[in-house]
């Protein structure tokens, strides 16, 4: 019977590809709330599309007022949860492929959301369909919950949990294989300060779209002449970093080019805001800009904020400045920290505030870490499914990323990126490998049969 499940998954590749292409073509970036669309009309369209596809597959589907939907297999009272999300981060910079077309090249399908998290969520849904069509007997039900606000404030899960009981056990297909059983705590801060009246005069600066994205570009317009251009060129030569400066009718336009990515994974990335802060300080900026350059700069470990820490379970703290802008004579910025399991989030907040004199620091996010013991049934069952389908061993991992696994009493992140794949979440030219998504669907089917068939 399990072979029949796998055969059904193999035979569904064409339908899977076309469905995923249609999902990618729906640009579900959070927008202005509208009636029935709390996260904007584009996200609402994506939710409607996903529900229509699930209904066409024969599943029972419920809409939770545009916040989320659930898709259920089986009527047993106890259910295994699969939690994915339909919203995506903004496109950002550096794309060479159309971000909302679902263009294919070989086994790759490109587009925002291809791997985070439309492709993996769809792989789990096709696994559920194969289980149903194969007639696999289940002792427990399976409930997929698709949220619409994962990339922002998780209001979707709050709303869903207020209107329906969330299963205790399950997984989120929104990270990596073999399995992630430890997620760091999250600390988010909004920073505000009046602009300095002395030093380099900064006329304009606005960079970054989301707190959880490492910005790849930052521009600033400053008052000055040819001397600033020469100083910028000298600083670029000395640091080896990609800066440019050009004279315009309004002043000197400065540009810094970073390497974008997900804020939880700063390795190999370069924050363009941090680069600009260091350049502006070099050019004579004082006050808040100089403070941010000193306390944040291009660091990703929170060291100069007094926040660097680590533990054996989850590794070190990461810190990202995702947004910085000058508005009406005042600075606004954001910090996104991913904190080790043993860290004291309140102590970290106090340390950061103490290292940012002149700034008002408001806490916007304080989510505790999440850890599921590796010795339990959930972890062992999922790792067994992974091992059986891939022929390789796997061990639980930790991550700075946050997934819906946190809303479950016993929840882990399970796929869909494989160990040898580059992290593409929140990056330009995001893509998913269709061969790997088909394999992920088989792993999910195996895992769900183990968990729901017991």
Describe the model:
- The two termini are 15 Å apart.
- The strands form seven sheets. This protein has an eight-stranded antiparallel β-sheet.
- Strand 4 and strand 5 (108-110) form a beta hairpin.
- The mean pLDDT is 96.
- It is 32% helix and 27% strand.
- It has 454 residues and is of the alpha+beta class.
- The radius of gyration is 23 Å and the shape is elongated.
- It has helices at 2-11, 13-24, 41-56, 114-134, 155-163, 226-239, 272-282, 288-295, 345-354, 377-390, 434-452; strands spanning 60-63, 68-73, 79-85, 104-105, 108-110, 141-147, 169-172, 175-176, 180-183, 185-194, 202-207, 213-214, 217-222, 243-247, 252-257, 261-262, 310-311, 315-316, 318-327, 330-339, 360-367, 370-371, 397-399, 410-413, 416-417, 431-433.
- Helix 1 packs antiparallel against helix 11 and helix 7 crosses helix 8 (288-295).
Oligomer: single chain
Q: How would you characterize the largest beta sheet?
A: 8 strands, antiparallel
Contiguous helical run count: 11
* Unreliable spans: none
User: Would you count the extended β strands for me?
Assistant: 26
**Which percent range fits the helix content?**
25-40%
Average residue-wise pLDDT: 96
Supply Rg: 23 Å
Shape descriptor reads: elongated
From the N-terminal CA to the C-terminal CA, the straight-line distance is 15 Å
Structural class: alpha+beta
- What percent of residues are in strands? 25-35%
Q: Taking strands numbered 1, 2, ... along the chain, how are they ordered across the largest sheet? A: 14-15-13-11-19-20-10-21
